[in-house]
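Q: A reviewer asked whether we had any structural model of the full assembly, not just the individual parts. We don't, so I'm hoping you can provide one. Inputs are below.
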Amino acid sequence: MSEIKEPLVESSNRFNLLTSIWIVPIIAFFVSFALLYRHYSALGPKIEIVLPNSDGLEAGQSVIKFRNLAVGKILKIHIQKEGKGVIVVARMNKDTEEFLNESTKFWIVKPRVGYSGVSGLDTLISGSYIAMYAKRQSSNTKRKFIGEMQPYRDKDSGIKIHMISSKLSTVKVGTPINYKNIQIGEIERISLSPNGKNIALTAFIKKRYKKLINDTTKFWVQSLASIKLQDNRLDIKFTPVISYLAFGGITFETKFDKNYPLSPKKHIFHLYDSSSDAKKQVESLKSKVVKKVIFKFAGRVSGLRKDSSIRYQGFNVGAIKNVDIHYDSLTHKMNAKAIGEIETSFFDDANKSGLENIKKAVEDGMRAKLVSSNPIFDSLYVDLVFLKDANSSKKTMLKISKDGTLYFPVIDSNGSELIGSISALTNRLDQTLIS
Amino acid sequence: MAKDSNINNELDKLIICPNCNTLHKKIDLPKGKSAKCQNCGVELYRNDGKILNHSLALGITGIILFILSNLFPLIKIEFFGHQQFVTIPIMIESMYEGGFYLVATIILLILIFIPMSILLLYIAFSILMLLRKGKALSKDLLIMLSKLLPWNMTEVFLLSILVAVTKLSSYVEIKMGISFWSLAVFVLLDVYLIKHIHIGELWDLRYRVFHAKK
Amino acid sequence: MQKNRQNSNTKLIRCPVCEAVNIDKPGDIYCHRCQSRIYRDIKYGTTKAWAYLLSAMALYLPANIFPIMLNQKFSFHDSNTIIGGVITLWHDGSYLVSLVVFVASVVIPILKFIVLIYLLINANRKKDKYTKRNLHKLHKMTEIVGSWSMVDVFVVALLAGLVHMNNIKIIAGPASTTFVLMVIFTMMSALSLDTRIFEKGREDV
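A: Here is a predicted structure for the entire assembly that you could use as a starting point for your response.
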């Protein structure tokens, strides 16, 4: 017969615990619904921040930190169509609602080794992030913000000072300012000065160290090691290597004297290239005397503008504050009335005040002349020079008005010959300065 | 041709063991019983009367779980304060971004497209059977289903997650995400659905439904 | 097993698509229930399977030589081949996982190659009843176990998708592509095997 077999019959192993299989999808549905609900209700607010560029931020990865705690994550970054920046879309934690208001500030922080709070390894891994500052407010929450270009400092946490330097060297944003190997502040912002000739820096000094800074403070760029031979002793100092290699360093020296209060905010400090340069620089021992001065130039005056410097023999002795240019129908030239400030105490000497020395110099032929400082930027500065052919008969005097404003005589840029220096006068001034 | 259909009818009363190729006669089973191969013991078919309900209910559950598994993180890691997570779409996207288009597409197929299609086919077929419609369509569905079934690799993926977690555990902190658990349940369901509902049973079901029309 | 039905020597085969029983005939065979083509003419029996198998074996070599994963930690670049990864896991003490990866990525593919070669070689030899049955079982097992070799590929994809922080990244290596293709080809080889070749027994000439 056939060899067709019959299968063995056994009880099915499928267990029928459930009264109906439909329990399963129902459970699944409710569980997933609950999970989804929990997930979406735990999500915090979505915000937008406008920043000039995305500078190392990564969508889906970079975080927003508040008081060094991650409180949000960047979802997307896209180009701002109506502007020149980028829009960062971020999802904040639920509990940050109260901190998203008018006082909230955001800025980008790039990874760095050095500054307080953040451990190096942490940011090297997490990359750039957005830092946040806010005061708690229960109302007026905002969702759209404009980011800051530089770190926002709570006004109480320190002061900002401005420096100027002729070249950049190793200094960059984040360069620490050290005092006796303690970091007391850092460079926040670096830009070209308005006249295009110098580098303008803004530094932040922590609050408790601000008394180290006064008018006599001289800043200079640290080198890796400084070797000094002094009093037959070799003095070698090293700066902390790691942060130096990354960011360089700036240090300073201050003379403490009850005559010198904390420097006003407007005071601009010079950043010297080395400690020897700084020490060579003369600081006036008395308080500065600054006088308002007015020059009336004619001819090619277009490069004269606010912040153009007033110089004598290469030294900056003042700056122009305001320039008024108008057409003169009689001479057919452009006339410029420049109002500036001269630090007359620069010309102080042992016997006379700077103002008196200037008056004498003008009688001896000192004039103001416009000199081109930079053909590319078309900028001019005012140079105080001596006329060779002084009209000895007609002595030009420095006019001083009732309110103390000096009206300085000028000469044409293409006219009378000039004398670079008159040795007698120069010597006298030099001696004053070196002492 | 009558002879042909006679032959076919006779053939349909037989079943061959998929494991050892032994021929058996299909006998009617009382409820709750299963039929096994005489030679190798592998289950041939079973009868518990609920095949339709089961396949529909489990198919729907499968879809819900599957969507959940793809939405949420599988693994979350924390390394020096920095957190990262991965979901299945993120994983595939990063393969695309890395330039591995072939691998990414293949993973997309076998982890997303195929399992989803299998579940949808089960659901569609069950609905058709319930409605007693779509004779030709249900046939196409079953054929597609049997072609896709060998390529379902979700359980392999589950194991891979465990291997990856072990590799990472030596230097980062790990937390399993929601999707991992839903995927685990999904795999259990999947295994049950695929291994215990035989294609032959579905064909028989179809035959019974369309018996009058056939 | 041979069957005697109305005619003598009618061979019956199982449709892989719908599990129905069909009559074996020369030439192409179509399933009576689902109309899918079961097998082509017997003379094509093993061509496809051999083609896939040989391609898979060729792909396995680069899959092991090229790195399957690249590790980037700060500026330290490290690349791992499959076997290198197994050794590293073993050294790190994760013996279980090391074994799992070893089995899934080395043992199983090589075994599959051996089994498939064995099955294909035995296709035209004379076999007895037990051998035939074993061949069927082997074939079935190959199909079941085949997909597990994908473990390594998924692991690499997971790690690459997960670890991409600022200075620490994991990137997939070129071996992943060849490995994936190897696994797929072995699966296709097993699927395309004409199981009638196992049926050629002593009775045939």
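A: Points you may want to mention in the reply: The two ends of chain A are 133 Å apart (CA to CA). The interface with chain B takes residues 3-14, 16, 20-22, 24-25, 28-29, 32, 35-36, 39, 61, 63, 70, 121-122, 125-126 of chain A (CB under 8 Å).
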